[in-house]
Amino acid sequence: MAKSVEHRSKPNFFDIDFEKAPFIAIWEVTRACDLRCVHCRAEAIPNRDERELTKEQGFALIDELRKFSDTAPPLFVITGGDPLKSPYTMDYIKYADSIGLRVAVTPSATGLLTREAIHEMKQNGLTRMAISLDGSTAEIHDNFRRQPGSYDHTIRAIKDAQAEGLTVQINTTISRWNMNDIDNLCELMQKLGLTLWAAFFLVPTGRGEETDEISPEQYEQALNKLYETARKADFDLKTTAAPHYRRVVLQHQRSEGRSNDSGKYLRPRKEGGGPEDRKTDGPPAWVLRDMKPGGWSRGDAIGRAGRGVNDGNGFIFIDHVGEVYPSGFLPLKCGNVKEKSIVEIYRNNPHLKAMRDFSRLKGKCWACDYRDVCGGARSRAFAVTGDYLASEPYCTYVPPALEHVQGVNWLAPDMLIKDVRQHMKPEDIKQFEKSE
After folding, report:
1. CA 80 to chain centroid
2. In terms of Cα–Cα distance, which of 381, 384, 372, 321 is closest to 351?
3. Which of 3, 153, 226, 396 is deepest in the core (most CB within 10 A)?
4. How far apart (Å, rounded) are the C-alpha atoms in residues 90 and 125?
5. How far is Cα 105 from Cα 192, in angstroms, rounded to an integer?
6. Under a CB-based contact definition with an 8 Å cutoff, are residues 63 and 99 in contact?
7. Does 63 score more than 90 pLDDT?
8. Please, which residues have CB within 8 angstroms of residue 130's CB and are 6 or more apart in sequence?
């Protein structure tokens, strides 16, 4: 087996100002896919849409993505649908690599994902392959994907990618369909030789239904289980659409008296970072206040963001017809790359700018001591309330500034969008307003 290595190393995240550039840009090259997954945010279709970006428009988009930064261009992820249903995916990988982008691809586990296809992607400059695995057994995974044999295709593809020397990321969507399988999933991940486990928490959009969500209490159980797994694992772990995992990590590290273990806190600075930015005897004061939204870091060396990425904040998504969204899970159109540069859209769209300003959050998120390292899932807030600035609907944590309030259900629909200052002490309000 070839040694799995990153084709390109990640940039210094100190060079990335999320106001100006995303850490990750995802392009849905096609919605065509042979699977019929129960949670599919894209509501994938069997055949390609004739409105897809042309090959020339695709190359132009890649050129624009490269313009975000000379020193720290975004991680470029080609997704779908199934990107292997597009005849241009190999060309896109090769071209993006040739101009200096790190390229990842998220193919579907079908008969199209052959060893030969994986080899060709690697030869064209692919940095990493990400593939979905949503159950520890074929029965659970195939029911989730609505395709018999999908589990076997997935395991084979993981082994083929590793044999080709590619690093592998496994994406798992946590929902009611597999919540009872999470312990077995954690055990399975330890055996697969992956580089990164990305735990996606279902957002009720596309085919995903709110009834498929796990409860807020189950979120806490799952996030704590993931933390325990990450502590013992040889791979890294991140969450998508569950930024409150960062709060869980910090809570554990503090309670264990090891806040400097695998998590030296690094203040993001445009001019770079040095030893003065590192504090090894616990989290400095700026971890909880006075920092840019999402400016949270923990030790990381495998090519993912060192800071907290959220919808529209270090993250941007382009669909198959060129529409731009804060993420694939937040269906709010912010522009189209056929009409305007992706750089212009990301930097100046008012919705995206609002999502990067955590002082505009509502509900208990506004008063949370973890606000600037978490921010709550803007996509889930939008899906549940229609307001992307609403409080995270599936977080049970009550901030200290609101602990004295009795008889309030902070997850009630009206409280998710409420200005909570009327419930706060004047000195606490002053502290939060001072930090803005």
Report:
1. 16
2. 381
3. 226
4. 9
5. 19
6. yes
7. yes
8. 77, 104, 105, 106, 168, 169, 170, 171, 198
